[in-house]
Inverse folding.
């Protein structure tokens, strides 16, 4: 009879044990094996891209197919090409300097070896990108992976769970759905590394759970990423670029422009430009190119934030003619908000929706002081052709990343690390740093047949004094 007080194995624990056993039996896959895994992952994406787009759209209620191809399928496929191009060099042992005075003829190397089993907790906003892009670096580093999908990605999770086993065995890769409590149990597993992407509040809980196992974590969180439009930058171009990023995925992006700072004299013109741009890009609220809000809770949260701003005297300006929202489709029209008080919900919390507060300034240092008074953002977006002004912002506002004269695009550069700082996250992946994150940088010292330390073996005497005096002279 089973003892009810004895913890029972779970599918999560069983899979971890299976992958750990497979890792111990073959801890360092060859370059060819890693290349094969990466090409298999890429082949899966290409062979299933239409079904993957459809599954994600079903999870949203409606999501533009083009947005999924642009923001999820393309980065994953193209990123694997980048890794394949560089992987041989990344895997090569690094030569390091040996102090000739101490170890004549000895050698130092740093070898990058697989950690073992990596856990990935995936959010709902870009569930394909934020599962398969990390997996490409996890596999490049030679690891195995367990992936926990979001409760808001049920259709996609079901599809991955059904079809991925034809490409990877469970001892290499296993996907899990969120069926209630899975995320909590998942974060408590004794992984060799854990990657979490999501909210700061949940990130704290994940980090606390991982700490019980001393499991290292990479946290990709969020934050109120500001755009800072300077006087010299063309306002039309700034509006075109900011509105594209802000309304991509209906603003449900951790690195989107949360709010924009504008010279006080240019706010009115920016609003006029924004109305024209939105009318061109999304003529109607039911445009097939415009994505729904993910669920009813998020939909109501955004409407409450607008009501809160309105009740505090802010100007709430829908940018489309007709209804400001549609409950049936969970679509909210793009909005600009002017004069929102500092304590309003829109300025206190990450917006994560198609609402753009505009904040005016007369001196750039006002903007810098305001940003620095809050948590460090995941990104900052200065718009200026004045190189000194841009560098001043970069020097004085710390953030996870920076795109100059545009927004978001630093994230899509395969050779740049991606990650937050402070409350917007910790650790990096993408590029070489992604390979390094999921590897152990293992120092190896190769001693020669003769060691100069022999002169310092006890018992110590005057000769040891002379040797030490020579070494530290």
């Amino acid at each position: 009879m089973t003892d009810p007080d004895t913890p029972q194995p779970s599918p999560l624990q069983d899979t971890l044990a299976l992958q750990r056993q497979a890792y111990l039996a073959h801890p360092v896959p060859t370059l060819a094996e890693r290349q094969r895994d990466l090409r298999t992952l890429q082949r899966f994406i290409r062979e299933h891209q239409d079904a993957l787009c459809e599954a994600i759209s079903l999870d949203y209620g409606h999501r533009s197919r083009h947005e999924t191809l642009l923001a999820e399928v393309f980065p994953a496929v193209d990123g694997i090409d980048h890794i394949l191009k560089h992987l041989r060099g990344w895997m090569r042992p690094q030569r390091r300097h040996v102090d000739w005075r101490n170890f004549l003829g000895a050698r130092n190397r740093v070898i990058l070896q697989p950690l073992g089993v990596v856990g990935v907790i995936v959010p709902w906003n870009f569930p394909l990108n934020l599962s398969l892009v990390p997996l490409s670096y996890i596999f490049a580093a030679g690891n195995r992976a367990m992936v926990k999908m979001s409760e808001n990605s049920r259709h996609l999770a079901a599809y991955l769970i059904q079809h991925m086993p034809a490409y990877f065995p469970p001892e290499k890769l296993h996907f899990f759905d969120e069926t209630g409590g899975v995320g909590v149990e998942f974060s408590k597993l004794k992984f060799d590394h854990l990657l979490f992407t999501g909210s700061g509040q949940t990130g704290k809980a994940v980090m606390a759970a991982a700490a019980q196992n001393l499991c290292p974590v990479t946290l990709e969180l969020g934050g109120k990423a500001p755009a800072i439009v300077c006087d010299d930058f063309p306002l039309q171009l700034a509006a075109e670029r900011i509105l594209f990023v802000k309304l991509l995925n209906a603003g449900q992006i951790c690195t989107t422009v949360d709010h924009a700072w504008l010279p006080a004299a240019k706010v009115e013109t920016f609003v006029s430009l924004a109305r024209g741009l939105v009318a061109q890009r999304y003529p109607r609220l039911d445009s097939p190119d415009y994505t729904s809000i993910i669920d009813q809770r998020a939909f109501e949260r955004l409407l409450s934030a607008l009501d809160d701003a309105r009740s505090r005297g802010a100007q709430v300006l829908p940018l489309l003619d007709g209804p400001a929202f549609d409950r049936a489709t969970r679509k909210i029209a793009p909005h600009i908000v002017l004069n929102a008080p500092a304590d309003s919900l829109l300025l206190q919390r990450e917006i994560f929706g198609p609402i753009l507060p505009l904040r005016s300034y007369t001196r750039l240092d006002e903007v810098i002081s305001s940003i620095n008074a809050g948590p460090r953002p995941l990104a900052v977006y200065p718009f200026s052709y004045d190189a000194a002004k841009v560098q001043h912002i970069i020097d004085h506002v710390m953030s996870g990343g920076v795109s100059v004269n545009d927004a978001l695009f630093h994230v899509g550069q395969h050779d740049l690390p991606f990650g937050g700082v402070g409350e917007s996250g910790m650790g990096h992946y993408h590029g070489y740093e992604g390979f390094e994150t999921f590897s152990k940088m293992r120092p190896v010292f190769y001693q020669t047949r003769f060691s100069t330390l022999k002169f310092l073996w006890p018992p110590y005497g005057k000769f040891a004094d002379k040797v030490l005096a020579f070494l530290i002279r």
